[in-house]
Heme NO-binding protein
Amino acid sequence: MHGMINRAIQCFMRDTYGGATWQAVAESADLGFDNFEAMLSYPDQLTIDVLGRAARQLHKPVETFLEDLGTYLVSHPNVEAIRRLLRFGGENFTEFLFSLNDLEGRAKLALPDLEMPTLRVEDNGDGTFRLSCLSSMPGFGYAMVGVMRAMADDYGALVFLEHQGWMDSGEEIITINLLEAAYAEGRAFELSERIGGEP
């Protein structure tokens, strides 16, 4: 697993629950080190072990932990770059949803060796959308539920999300019911960041 995934889990634990909680997880997983390196690769089983131990440390199901991780990746100030990457996908939540079909390719431009999940969004034509997610990390779809929930809030949309489970092909299916596209005022977003406070 790419080190960025492991690093994200570490940062989520540290930023949300404190350094001591992360340290306890690292020790229980017998990592032999305190910090994941973002540009290294680690065995997939190590990532799975860390996820399981982190969930147990917090007394949460792994699915809930992954959903919270997905929300963190979009909403926490320390990972603003991920939110910006996703917000470039469109001016409203519907445009953002369809931009997920190209996310894997866009991410590869920045990090060619990062194994991104394959995402596919389909419009069911009744106000609902079907998101299929194929990833080497078991349960990544639950993290996507957290991402979708945070992005809906970011755009001010009201949605109902449901993880439908796995298909025989290994894809996880998420149903997205867009109840209201402009339910509330979304978070401010500018295409270009200001440098040094200059407008």
Remarks:
- Strands lie at 118-123, 128-134, 158-166, 172-180.
- The mean pLDDT is 84.
